[in-house]
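User: Structure with adenosine-5'-diphosphate, tokens only please.
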Amino acid sequence: MTAATATAPRVLRSPAEIRRSRIIGIIYLMLAAFVLVVFAMGTEGDATFKLAATGDRFEIPDLVLSAAGLSYVAAAFLAFLGGIQLTRGFGKATNIILGLAMAVIAFTFLGWAAAGKSLSLVGMLQLTVVKSVPITFGALSGVMCERVAVINIGIEGMLLSGAFLGALIGSVAGPWMGILAGILVGGLLAFALAVLAIKYRVDQIIAGVVINIFALGITSYLTSSILVENSDTLNRVDIFRAWKVPLLGDIPFIGPIFFNHNFFVYGMYVLVAVIAFALFKTRWGLRSRAVGEHPKAADTLGINVFRFRYLNVILGGMIAGFGGAYFTVGSAGAFDENMSAGRGFIGLAAMIFGRWHPVGALGAALVFGFADSLQAKLAILQTPIPGEFLLMAPYIVTVIVVAGVVGRARPPAADGQPYVKE
Amino acid sequence: MELELKGITKRFPGVLANDRVNLEIKSGEILGLLGENGAGKTTLMNILYGLYSATEGDILIDGRVQDFQSPGDAIAAGIGMVHQHFMLVPVFSVAENVVLGVEPTRAAGILNMEEARRDVRQISAKYGLEVDPDAVIEDLPVGIQQRVEIIKVLFRQAEIIVFDEPTAVLTPQEVEEFFGIVRSLRDAGKGIIFITHKLDEIREVADRINVLRRGRIVGEADPKVVGKEELAELMVGRPVELVVAKEEANPGAPVLEVEDLVVLDDRNHPNVDGVSFTVHAGEIVGIAGVQGNGQTELVEALTGLRTALSGVVRLSGEVVTDDTPREIHRKSVAHVPEDRQRSGLVLTFTVAENLVLDSYYDEPFSRGVVMDWGRTRENARALVEEYDVRTPSIEVEVRNLSGGNQQKVIVAREFSRDVKFTVASQPTRGLDVGSIEYIHERIVKERDAGGAILIVSTELDEVMALSDRILVMYRGKIVAERRPDETDTTKLGLFMAGVTET
Ligand SMILES: Nc1ncnc2c1ncn2[C@@H]1O[C@H](COP(=O)(O)OP(=O)(O)O)[C@@H](O)[C@H]1O
Ligand SMILES: [Mg+2]
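Assistant:
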């Protein structure tokens, strides 16, 4: 008799995966055909992309491309990808290649839209970062909550409440107090969610929806009953101005996109880094993740599951409240009914797309932010696409990304389940 | 250290799980706690570990009364526990699991994983518990996971260590190895409480035996002198047959034929990897193997719950490889699933409803879209009577029944039809001896009526007792085929561990 030797298990492709791989391949081919027919044929003129913003220290020449030429190249590239996908497949790189293909299509689309005109690429990407701010804060809030297995659908309501109080308190007591008020109201709503979800074990989706409805109702009511009449005194807040980071802000192309923004954007970078570090490198993070993956195991090791859930959910709410204040204190300067407009839900999508990781969430939020800025910029360029469709862009991208592209991401194992002692 | 449980009573709604239990244990001894499933062993240990609070009674350490509010308190008092269901975070590394809750840190709560790894290696070396500190738990076989649990306990410097049914997931060889570890822990001065319902094991390893029955300590025994029958009687409360009574099998025509079957698991590993076998009418074929060697996927493929990647399954000559579960079910196949609470029953449905889960959609239990509750109840009353399901009423939610009676509901539902082929996974897992005897009897009766039967069990004793033919599964392949009278548990255990004949 001989003992068995340990070998790594073979991995085969399941029928479902083979099907998905084929579908992606066919989609590449269809996209190639689409790019060819819609973007390449009959398009004339050069697209001019501006790569530097006004006031940059270094000047970079504009990028001028033939819109049709760009489209032909893109179509050929997509067809090539489709061919490989259908025959050999990309294996582990499938998703990366998919992302690359999407980027190519987006760029080609811009070329087509800007044919014969000029488009500031740098301005558009700068706007992308700006638009991704509330989405990122929403996603980070979701990461905080779901890492300890509490689903927070109420992020939208927390953003909205943060925006409202940011405007109101900010107008009365200055922007810093506005931010503080936003953080507090976010934390307060999260505390309500925590009590409902953790203590009373109410269905977490329902508890979150209740918070959203409550927040929308009360902010709308207060807006029409108080803010509208006193808009000069109660709904006008000094917004934070942009501040260019020395040195980093002068890097050509990159600088203006990432390092010439206001306080909220830098706050976002810092928060992403801090949460990522805390979750994966500290005792608090290890325990939080244990509580989200296997609360019973955490409990048997003397970790207080309930305390971690309360704490992290409230912190998550405060992050959402802070992100909400951005709408008013960091951007618009005044509150508008339902001004969060679903960014909290898109934040949740970004959290999933980013696989419950803060850095991933930021990346995903940038994708959604790009769709947002696309809509804003194209409206100016006057393309044949109806404005209503442009408005849909962020949501369409959300649906495509969440439903099809990501594949199955694995949430924390206990996500959404209340913990019952005994 | 001396630990004493005094008059511990624990009442759950409707159940007296522990009834004035007294227990003593000192450093440097192995106390065996014997009791059948549902006797209250886990409950007692959860009280000791601070997970439950006792309704009455005291825990004393070196004569001083303890007040454990949470496991943290028990751990601080030097008590460690390896739970029946492992308490490991599957996506964490070994080192992360070991230090969780008592993490070595630098300033500001930053984890010091180098120190954690070093500590794990140190304990590994000291007690011969070899494991890679960076391996991720979900990639490790259960035997190694258990080592991690032991390292966890030792890392917390436990003086009294509780093992709750630790051998249930191990092969016979791993059990021997485990006993070696337990003995070395004892010799290092630890006090061990070893919990089991297996008579041979407790006689082999324990220094003293206490027997728990229906929540009470009913006796003590000296493992060196007590006989197996005597111990069984003490545990169950009446004399028990230790073997399944059955005649020689009389196999007929092939009923189930499996050819070169490949099935992927959820992570796309071919967990069933080219399996071929046949089950004939009138025979019981048992599949032995350590949990996770493809048995689950095999049964799911046979019952249509999982699509096979390749290969053929035939029932009485007809190819059913790609049939849906309902189509297969309608071809006279009975399925007693591995996890009765998750896939065998709808726990919040009544007994009567659960008894028609497989046939509610058709005559006689429904006409068109309307259920015929009269017929459903009639059916339930008849089956409850015939299969001796102990329930206050057929309208009781099935989650209120004991494990044994839940299993009887499933067996009643599955066997009450005209069945040609039966596949039963872990048919007696977690049941009391009375229910085990009953279910074994039913299975043999089904065979004698000409049914083809496939039993999947990780309990080697059960496979040996029931089967007419035994197949051993290891890493998705059938590595041995034996008749029970030409082999023994030691040899089968070697096959289960992947040892092959050359
Ligand atoms: N949390 C609980 N709630 C209600 N009843 C329980 C609970 N835990 C165990 N029981 C009941 O207590 C009895 C003893 O269970 P347990 O201690 O798990 O037995 P053992 O470990 O000896 O198999 C069983 O009848 C079981 O159904
Ligand atoms: Mg138990």
